[in-house]
Amino acid sequence: MSKIHVYELAKQLGIENKELIARLKSHGIEVKSHMSALEEDEVKKVTAPAAPPKAVSAKEQDEIRVTTTVIRRRPKAVEAQPEVPEAPALEAPAAVVEAAEIAPPVEEPVVTPEPVPAAPPEKPVAPVPPAPAQEAPAAVEPQPEMPTANRARILGRVELPGITTKPAAKPAERREVVIPPKRKMEERIMTPAPSERPAAPAPSADQKKGGRKKEFVAAPPEPDRGAKKGVAPAAKKKEAFKKSEMLERRERVFEPGPKAGKGKRRDKEYVSAGRKTEITVPKAIKRIIKISESITVGELAKRMGVKATDLIRVLMKMGMMVTINHPLDVDTATLVANDFGYEIENVALDVDEILEAVPDAPESLVKRPPVVTIMGHVDHGKTSLLDAIREANVIAGEAGGITQHIGAYDVELNGRKITFLDTPGHEAFTAMRARGAKVTDIVILVVAADDGVMPQTREAVNHSKAAGVPIIVAINKIDKPEAKPERVKQELMELGLVSEEWGGETIFVEVSAKKRINLPELLEMVLLQADVMDLRANPDKEARGTIVEAKLDRGRGPVATVLVQEGTLKNGDFFVAGVHYGRVRAMQNDRAEKVQSAGPSMPVEVIGFTGVPDAGDVFIGMNDEKRAKEIASHRQQKLRETELAKHSKMSLEQLYDKIQKGEVKDLNVIVKADVQGSVEAVAESLRKLSTAAVRLNVLHSSVGAITETDVNLATASSAIILGFNVRPEPKASALADKEGVDVRLYNIIYDAVEDIKKAMEGLLEPTLREKYLGRAEVREVFSVPKVGNVAGSYVQDGVMKRNAQVRLLRDNVVIYEGKMSSLRRFKDDVKEVATGYECGIGLENYNDIKVGDIIEDFEIEKVAATL
Ligand SMILES: Nc1nc2c(ncn2[C@@H]2O[C@H](COP(=O)(O)OP(=O)(O)OP(=O)(O)O)[C@@H](O)[C@H]2O)c(=O)[nH]1
């Protein structure tokens, strides 16, 4: 080869034409373009760095020598200067790279050196082997301009490890070449400080261009190859390499460890070295894990970067038996995460917040009817009053109107409406309040004039006050001759309800539900109170309200009474209520009339729910079905998760313990029904029966007759089978008989639920309850020979029963608890002594009785627990 084109040489060298041209220039060889031809000696100049070495200044030589030394005598160099571990570490790789760099063009020469200084073909590299220390410098020389800069730059590159990885492409060859020196390097220098690895490799003194560097790196293999097998077609391969370079590089990045042992190991070393650095540095980030209400054990472990088993172990230590898929609630997650040095942040998407009612502009508000709840003591006439008001109104309106119970109704007086929630009693009122629903504007407190203030009257007053709802007192049964309204007023005054005529602010109306006395007056007062309260709402927006009542209707599916509180609900509107959503298919009022829209304070029965909502659920109308669906499913998921998390929490903290002690019972149920709707309804109602003490598991539910499979399942899991409008197949029936499986058939869901409830109660342990019998005061203490002290007592309350349990109280402190050993009246033993009588009481094994002590007797009775 006498002449060679620039581009050819560049190709051979595996560098860019431009780069080669620049290099040529630096050697004083001017070329016009990559097509220019180069003379042999010119080629030598560029490719053989040998020449310049001598020209290097003493100072430079020094520097270079280190490098060179390292290159050629890595082992020695290292050994020789162990005190300078860092420097060599850095230089060494550089040297390798350099050598490689130089080598490529010369191919064989480089190879030869290692084994024996052999005869490196002809070119520059030849000298390298024998006098490496000097030659290397030469190689470096050509680019002396950038010694420091280069180093700095290269040091910063992380590619080198990857590059080193390159051998992946030609594992065998590369391994052969680079390994020997590198191995040693790594073993002796690198290994001690692996983290420096990424930096160390960079040093290659030459180029600033990454690509080039890579090529050079790629080169080393060749020399090695040469070493073993002679000359490798480096140049040609390089081309191919170039083409696939990008791909290869990628592979290298992602799969650093190719196959073969050595190469693989080396790759790993490099790669892991790189990774290590990354891991230690970035993990300084705040250790906060964001979760939404709950997180599964597996996910939490993953996010903390710990093994799930380790996390489970920690949880077990905390008494929680969990599996990897168990959801943990925020509290639990926080607790365990702390153990691992992490913090938990609950970033639950608060849908309710999104749906928060936006305050309306004052001008958009219009007057709305008041919503009234009737409360009072049992039998004081709540229902009668509700009915009376309604009937009176119906009669006043359209005669004969068929009314139906929908949980609420409205009446009209002088063109103004009043809405009554017709679930009397404070239970419904508080249940709704407990759910955060504020529905009632005014409470009508019914007090029977002949009975006065009773316990539930007090409760009702307290509940109303707690809710900040004004009370209007309806003194009922005023028609009764024994009615004493004044007494009622007086008693109520003690509860803070002072009538207006007595200077107070509470409105009192004397009525008779039975005789329809003063009902309009009562309603008038309600309206008056409403005026004072200035109840307003904006009717011109999407509806917002509360579910007053809901049920599953056989023909219509889930049906709920919605009390619209703001906006207007129209037919066809989409909505969300609790965990359910739907679209208003039809609405009707309590008079069973179809309505097209319902404004503020209007109760309507809505059809179109996807499920039965709960009373007290907030009802929100919206135009967007997708949104309604999303919110509902989000809520459902949250509900499920929290319930599951709660459940598992309980099983960990209490339930598990209880199960161990046999205190917790499970009731397994299989539900079969004629239609899917019933299956779901039953399953849902049953699930709701689960309590902390008895868990109700619906093992299986489906449509169709009760089959043998169902019976088998029931047998295997001690379940009972509930059938709704279905019968067992004859074979199933026989099997059930044989296996003793309880199969219950119903037509009404309510009956089934009731039965199950009872069954669950039967499963519960009977509760031991103390039953107070009476008390007696010790007035005298007699000392009876052979018996001990006997308390001469006077029964103040209840009865004293022989053999009853007793408690001796002194200054209200129990000083003895045991059994009564004797009970006498005068000299006779008696079974019991009633109030107002005197008796002698002996206490079993206890004599320290004093005058003034109180003896209380009681019995322990077993009470079947109720849910
Ligand atoms: N004389 C008379 N009797 C009444 C009046 N109002 C109700 N009663 C009677 O009182 C009894 C109880 O009435 P209810 O309306 O059932 O009372 P309640 O408060 O709804 O009772 P619970 O639903 O059990 O809490 C019934 O026998 C009614 O007939 C009344 O104004 N005058």
Automatic annotation (TrEMBL):
Primary residence: cytoplasm
Skewed-composition ranges (Pro residues): 112-132
Protein name per its UniProtKB record: Translation initiation factor IF-2
Compartments where found: Cytoplasm
Start-end of Basic and acidic residues biased regions: 171-189, 206-227, 236-254
Binding of GTP, residues: 376-383, 422-426, 476-479
Encoding gene (name): infB
Every Tr-type G domain range: 367-536
Function: One of the essential components for the initiation of protein synthesis. Protects formylmethionyl-tRNA from spontaneous hydrolysis and promotes its binding to the 30S ribosomal subunits. Also involved in the hydrolysis of GTP during the formation of the 70S ribosomal complex.
Species assigned in the record: Geobacter pickeringii
SUPFAM superfamilies from the UniProt entry: Initiation factor IF2/eIF5b, domain 3, P-loop containing nucleoside triphosphate hydrolases, Translation proteins
Alphabetical list of InterPro entries matching this protein: EF-G-like_DII (IPR053905), EFTu-like_2 (IPR004161), IF2_II (IPR044145), IF2_N (IPR006847), P-loop_NTPase (IPR027417), Small_GTP-bd (IPR005225), T_Tr_GTP-bd_dom (IPR000795), TF_IF2_bacterial-like (IPR000178)
Keywords: Cytoplasm, GTP-binding, Initiation factor, Nucleotide-binding, Protein biosynthesis
Pfam families in alphabetical order: EF-G_D2, GTP_EFTU, GTP_EFTU_D2, IF-2, IF2_N
Record's compositionally biased regions (Low complexity): 46-56, 133-143, 192-205
Record field: transmembrane: none
GO cellular component, one term: cytosol
UniProt-annotated stretches for the region G-domain: 370-518
